[in-house]
Design a protein that fits this description.
- This protein is α+β, with helices and mostly antiparallel strands.
- Among the domains are: 128 residues, no CATH class; 93 residues, no CATH class; 101 residues, Tumour Suppressor Smad4 (Sandwich).
- The chain contains 6 helices and 24 strands.
- The strands form 4 sheets. Strands 1, 2, 3, 18, 19, 20, 21, 22, 23 and 24 form a 10-stranded antiparallel sheet that branches.
- A hairpin with a 6-residue loop joins β19 and β20.
- α4 packs antiparallel against α5 and α5 runs antiparallel to α6.
- The longest helix is centred in the C-terminal third of the chain and has 28 residues.
- It is elongated.
- The mean pLDDT is 90.
């Protein structure tokens, strides 16, 4: 049978030279990605700058075209082509499945405390989000855009500009790895409220921190068994638990306090305290002390750059607004004020909302004998769908939860200062290309087996 005329047009695309070029390019790309990940200790950087770069996609697209042309070049197909075609089709399907995963899949995480319900995931994609509002009212979202600063970082020569309401926010520097450090300073701005540094301690534990009132009415520090609250008068509503509430009153140097005890809700201890003073809380022998008090305070952040990623590093960006310079880190926000309005500028991982929630009922950690090292850890969760609990299960390192196309894996956990687990971290995956990747892999295996089987049969007959 004569071959169709169209085959001469695809002959160059079926060239062995193209196949050799693709194989060498894929090897170089894989080596490059491995080197980048090793240098920066950052798999995401390798993904953004190498594996998900345009040239990587071009290589795989050329591979798919070459394989398709090779299959077409063999037409009309014969019985002994079955294994050959199966293997080539399998590779093409595997590539298409990977494309589905890349653009329609979900690779995220979920972190929640014990007894907390959550229906939001934190993905690896990063967004710039800006809310705008009047000083006398609420805020609305006015800007949102995905950014890839690891691959295309902003600079003084190539800034990333956000235009909102006639104002400009100009991002002109990016640090992929930085250590955040905070400092509280006195402030005379009307929008900056009081701030105090406190210490709470007993015979076994001592902890200090800052409370900053800002313009939001109150600030809460959750210490586990108790909460410490700094609030404007009548701005905080007690809703149970052990709470030390400190209220500022005008320009007074003293703070009024109220102590609420969960076991004795009707007995509220009251009084006043100023800088240097202390309060006996009545909880486990804990004493509260005010180390420093400022009528106006602001928190400023600095980000010390590092050459490679560590467990403590985060991404940070510098931007200017109305002639002022600001730094902020990933998953942080900054309030920016004009004469009659304000903006909330956010650089954060994208949040994805589920139509169901998980509630962490209990979390357990198994330790290696005689050490604090975790040998195993698992989460008891309830699946809440439609406002009702529809399932209760345990997620462990080797036992994920699958629900509505999502797979939840036990990834990590966090502990408090006493070494008690307080937060479970799950890795969440949805892979619409999984079926096609499995199918492609099976076709490749079948094709290779068939090719070897045909060769073996021919040898046996000869």
């Amino acid at each position: 049978m004569a071959k169709p005329k169209w085959q001469k047009w695809i002959k160059p695309l079926a060239s062995l030279k193209i196949a050799v070029f693709v194989i060498i390019s894929m090897g170089v790309m894989s080596a490059w990605g491995t080197i980048v990940e090793s240098i920066y200790n950052d798999a995401k950087r390798a993904q953004e700058t190498v594996y998900h770069a345009w040239f990587s996609y071009a290589i795989f697209a050329l591979l798919a075209v070459n394989l398709t042309a090779v299959i077409a070049d063999r037409y009309p197909w014969k019985r002994n082509h079955v294994g050959f075609i199966s293997a080539h089709v399998g590779i093409i399907i595997l590539i298409l499945g990977s494309v589905l995963t890349r653009y329609f899949g979900v690779d995220a995480s979920m972190a929640f405390n014990i007894n907390e319900s959550k229906n939001k995931l934190m993905s690896s994609e990063t967004d710039i989000i800006v809310y705008s509002g009047l000083l006398s009212g609420g805020a609305r979202k006015v800007f949102e855009k995905e950014v890839h600063f690891l691959k295309d970082p902003p600079s003084l020569n190539k800034p990333f500009v956000v235009e909102v309401g006639g104002d400009k926010i100009v991002i002109d520097d990016f640090r992929p790895y930085s250590i955040p450090q905070s400092k509280v300073e006195p402030s005379e701005k009307a929008t900056d409220g009081p701030g105090l540094r406190f210490q709470i301690s007993n015979d076994r534990v001592s902890e200090s921190d800052w409370l900053l009132l800002g313009n939001q009415g109150f600030d809460v520090k959750d210490m586990g068994p108790a909460k410490i609250v700094l609030a404007q008068k009548d701005k905080y509503k007690y809703n149970g638990g052990n709470v030390l509430l400190l209220e500022s009153e005008g320009d007074s140097e003293k703070l009024r306090y109220r102590i609420f005890t969960a076991s004795q809700p009707d007995q509220i201890k009251t009084g006043s305290v100023s800088a240097g003073g202390s309060i006996q809380t009545g909880w486990m022998g804990l004493t509260f002390r005010i180390l420093k008090y400022m009528k106006g305070a602001k928190e400023t952040w600095t980000y010390e750059p590092l050459a490679r990623a560590t467990d403590e590093t985060i991404q940070s960006i510098r931007f200017t607004f109305n002639g002022n310079e600001y730094w902020t880190g990933l998953n942080s926000s900054v309030r920016l004020f004009t004469d009659n309005a304000y903006y909330v500028f956010i650089y954060a991982n994208r949040l994805l909302e589920l139509d169901f929630a998980l509630k962490l009922d209990e979390f357990r950690v198994g330790r290696y004998q005689g050490t604090r090292r975790a040998a195993s850890y698992e989460s008891d969760v309830s699946v809440i769908d439609g406002g009702h609990s529809v399932a209760n299960t345990t997620i462990s390192m080797n036992k994920p939860l699958k629900y509505k196309g999502f797979t939840f894996y036990q990834a990590s956990f966090k502990e408090d200062e006493m070494g008690r687990p307080i937060m479970s971290i799950l890795s969440v995956n949805r892979d619409p290309g999984r079926f096609w990747k499995y199918l492609g892999s099976l076709l490749i295996v079948f094709g290779i087996f068939h090719l070897f089987y045909i060769k073996s049969s021919r040898r046996a007959r000869s």
